[in-house]
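Regression test case RT-17, inverse folding.

Input:
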């Protein structure tokens, strides 16, 4: 296994793969506010979502930006170059799943 694959799994091994991929992909689709991300992941708590966002920020996959013209001040999350590099990989994984699902719903894990 290449060092880059090991690096990927090292930084992502502490949290659920489904959650991180959903967060990264959702931010890439402009669902970049906390409440929008929460709608994408309704079965996780706000605390878990907050921790995962902080983890992604720690690893420079996202940055947190204040929106000063909102009251109270809003926060949006933006993918860094490193985060943007993940998007085509996630899209390829999604395409692979669609191709091999044969019309069946695939359930790998439950978030509830």
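Golden output:
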């Amino acid at each position: 296994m290449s060092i880059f694959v090991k690096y990927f799994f090292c930084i992502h091994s502490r949290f659920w793969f489904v959650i991180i991929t959903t967060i990264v992909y959702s931010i890439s689709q402009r669902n970049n506010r906390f409440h929008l991300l929460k709608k994408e992941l309704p079965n996780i708590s706000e605390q878990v979502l907050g921790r995962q966002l902080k983890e992604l920020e720690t690893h420079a996959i996202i940055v947190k930006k204040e929106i000063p013209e909102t009251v109270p001040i809003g926060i949006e999350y933006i993918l860094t170059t490193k985060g943007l590099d993940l998007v085509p990989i996630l899209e390829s994984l999604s395409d692979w799943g669609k191709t091999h699902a044969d019309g069946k719903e695939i359930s790998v894990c439950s978030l509830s």
